[in-house]
């Protein structure tokens, strides 16, 4: 994580001080409809959020992967309809399929599964199920999917405000090399996150500031505002931010604010905006709360 941070910061400094801005594209009004369509594809895809069916934290007792009522569950004992069990140490997890599973799906006797946020997708798929390993606060979780999840067929899209030019705001980026804060998530875990920089901007003549983090090699903001719980998701929204130019200026386009995964499933571990990113005004731009999903 630290190595990734330093690489991204060096790139950002290169943009700010060596006029490499042309390498990076900022989204604008012309991209908005495509972005909305991409978001729908993202949440409904095989690796999206709508088909999540469970999240189980591995411990000394909870390790057997069983099937029950068309779903995958993790239990303390093996059932007749089981697929296998998990073994793990401090940094790796192995799935041990039972003999029936090995023969039916032509699997090896022991399968290494790395946490997906560290090594990319390393999921196992036995239709209609799929599962992967995640790591949070030094604990491993098994994230299960039902590829035929009923939420997919019932999905009616993601409500959003129309594009508004006034919510595309010029801002100033101040890079940071040695700053970190503690972030909490919706399941109560707390972990340290590197701050990539501070984003300074004005709204209605007042100065405001947001902390920017790194997500998938991009600048990323977690924020809340006064539309939360009314029109937008209660815990806040997320937003990718375009890279700065050689003077440190960047475009803060709230039209591209999007819902956290928790708006689509109860099996996500969404980070909550830190106090530094809780804005005291309403931002009626970006995605709205898809209340019909019930999350």
UniProtKB/TrEMBL annotation:
What InterPro entries does the annotation carry? Answer: DUF1684
One Pfam entry name: DUF1684
Q: Which PANTHER family match?
A: DUF1684 DOMAIN-CONTAINING PROTEIN
According to UniProt, the name of this protein is: DUF1684 domain-containing protein
């Amino acid at each position: 994580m630290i190595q990734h941070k330093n690489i991204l910061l060096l790139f950002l400094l290169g943009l700010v001080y060596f006029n490499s801005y042309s390498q990076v594209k900022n989204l604008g009004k012309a991209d908005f409809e495509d972005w909305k369509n991409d978001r729908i594809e993202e949440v409904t895809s095989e690796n999206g959020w709508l088909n999540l069916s469970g999240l189980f934290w591995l411990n000394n007792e909870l390790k057997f992967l069983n099937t029950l009522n068309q779903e995958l569950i993790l239990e303390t004992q093996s059932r007749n309809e089981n697929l296998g069990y998990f073994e793990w140490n401090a940094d790796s997890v192995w799935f041990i399929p039972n003999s029936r599973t090995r023969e039916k799906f032509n699997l090896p006797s022991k399968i290494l599964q790395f946490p997906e946020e560290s090594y990319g997708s390393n999921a196992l798929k036995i239709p209609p199920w799929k599962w992967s390993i995640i790591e949070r606060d030094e604990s491993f979780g098994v994230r299960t999917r039902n590829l035929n999840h009923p939420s997919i067929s019932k999905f009616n899209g993601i409500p959003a405000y129309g594009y508004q030019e006034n919510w595309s705001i010029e801002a100033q980026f101040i890079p940071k090399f040695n700053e970190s804060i503690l972030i909490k998530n919706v399941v109560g875990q707390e972990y340290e996150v590197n701050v990539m920089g501070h984003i300074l901007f004005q709204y209605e003549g007042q100065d405001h500031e947001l902390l920017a983090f790194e997500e998938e090699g991009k600048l990323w903001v977690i924020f809340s505002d006064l539309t939360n719980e009314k029109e937008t998701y209660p815990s806040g929204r997320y937003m990718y931010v375009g890279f700065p130019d050689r003077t440190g200026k960047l475009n803060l386009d709230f039209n591209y604010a999007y819902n956290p995964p928790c708006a689509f499933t109860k099996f996500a571990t969404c980070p909550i905006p830190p106090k530094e990113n809780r804005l005291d005004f309403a931002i009626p731009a970006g995605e709205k709360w898809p209340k019909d999903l019930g999350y």
